[in-house]
Amino acid sequence: MTTRREFITGIPLGAAAVIGCDTSNEFKNEVQSENFGAGQGETIILGRTGFKVSRIGFGAAHFTLNKTKEEATRLVNTILDNGINLIDTAWNYGNEQASWRYLGEVFKDRNRDEFFLSNKLEWREGRPISEKSVEGQIDEALKVMHVDYFDLYLIHNLYEPGCYEKCVERRFIEDLIKVREKGKIRSIGITGHCHPDMILMCKHYPEIDVVLGGMNIMREYYYFDYDARHLNDYAKRNNLGILSMKPFLMGALTSNQPTALKYAMTQPNSVPIPGMTEIEHVTMNVRAAREFSALSPEEQQRWKEPETILEGPACTGCNYCINGDTDDIDVPQLVMAAQYGERFGLREWQSKDKQRKKLAQDLEKITPEMAKRYTGKCPFELPVDELLKKSALYV
Ligand code: SF4
Questions:
Q1: For a 10 Å CB count at each end of the chain, is N or C smaller?
Q2: How far is the CA of 324 from the centre of ligand 1 (A)?
Q3: Which atom of ligand 1 is nearest to 320's Cα?
């Protein structure tokens, strides 16, 4: 009889190598000589803000890590020199406001009209800067970054139920409107990981012109996350600008880099803002943006169909496999993790995701007999037992 451990670890050895592949080396040592962002199609109007920005932006969350000030500022200068002119930052990016400080070093020597700068309001409790007023936070950030206005200022991370009520009660948007009237910010937005409260905020405050969310090919069509799809649809219908963070899912979609970026850029008003920590990332992203052509309706439809994406039957989350069971095992999520993880090469990302802990615990409890029982109940005749084994790579 197969043991529980053998059941869980019975993964073909070659699978991990394929899943972990990374094609970024092919772009190394390439120097981008022409300035990106000037040619037709290399800029985009950011929704109803009316601002023209480069087709791809720079998410400045991680560029300072393991870098000297000189290395980090050189990277940012390279990004700007290559015509990527939208930069998104926040007070907690990098150690001790390193993102702000290093960007400030760069901005001191650049013309203000060379870049579109986005920054965020920290409002969550327990963080020192949250004690400051809205205008106080903005003034501090302007000073550190050596600029006199932000093109976009967003309320940072609406992430849990009750965010909407808190923001309304604390009148953040009203305060931001007053600061906008003084010319210190030019447009207003919100960020989050596509929590439903983001849509509530947009409906309540027509002054919100931009949403920044984790929108990528995986999240929008990933069964784990319906909210991303709803937020994206809302933004499109209302002509909001969309900053699409994590277009590569924190590196997990690197092997699908061209399609992942293409997807984010195909969405109306959407500007992907990947992090870039090396010069070759800049080159790679500029090339992808420059060679961009929108996904056709047929291609987009293809990505919307899990059966097509997965080239075979896909788990629908119907729960028939666990109907009547008292095991308390989330079999559908494990099956989906295996199917989507394999298709998109998500091993590294999944292993970092805290939400996967419960699934990992579930997986530990499954015996071969249980797996056989689940398999027999699947109306789509999915090889549930085999997929549960594969899910060990992703949870
Ligand atoms: S019965 Fe099949 S399709 Fe339905 S949730 Fe279970 S594995 Fe997925």
A1: N
A2: 14
A3: 1
